[in-house]
Amino acid sequence: MRVRRNLMAFFLLTCALTGCASMVSKNISSGLEYFIGRPIDSAVQVRGYPDGKREILGHTLYIWSSNHSATLAVPTMSTTTGVAGSIPVYGTTTSVMPIYGSFYCTITLAVDAKDTIVNWQWTGNLGGCEQYAKILKGLKRQIPATVARSANKKNS
């Protein structure tokens, strides 16, 4: 059981490092698309305050970012055979192989002069972006009606 769980963790780590994250990509992209035309406050209500802010080409960019690394100890098993006297002997050897991973995600929202979101961009891998994908999945149910109404008032 423990070996199976560690192998699953190894698979997920490998998946995260190689970018097999189509569902995460879909959830983030559709969630970020939902913000277009809404005030930056709606994104802050869903995700929290951004990690940074930049001014570029007349747009303000708000940036949410995460970056961490982890080491996963993955057990490997090998079968050993031999002879003790004239009796065949079989044994299993278990060793641990460390797997290192780096997980990152950056989401950038661009706003115009009225603080209305006009564009978005994201980059990262499964291990880094999964937390954002979970937050952005089913976004229409998560944004309070008062924020959506204030978006319409600002744009009027």
Number of domains: 1
* Beta-strand share of residues: 35-45%
How many beta-strand runs?
4
The string of secondary-structure elements, in order, is: HHHEEEEHHH
Shape: rod-shaped
The major beta sheet can be summarized as:
4 strands, antiparallel
CA-based gyration radius: 23 Å
Helix and strand content put the structural class at: alpha+beta
Number of helices: 6
Cα distance spanning the termini = 59 Å
Helix content estimate: 40-55%
Unreliable stretches, pLDDT < 50, 5 or more residues? 145-156
Strands of the widest sheet, in order across it, are 1-2-3-4
pLDDT averaged residue by residue: 78
Reconstruct the topology from this structure.
Blueprint lengths: L1 H17 L3 H14 L4 H8 L4 E5 L2 E26 L2 E25 L5 E8 L1 H11 L2 H4 L2 H11 L1
Antiparallel strand pairs: 1-2, 2-3, 3-4
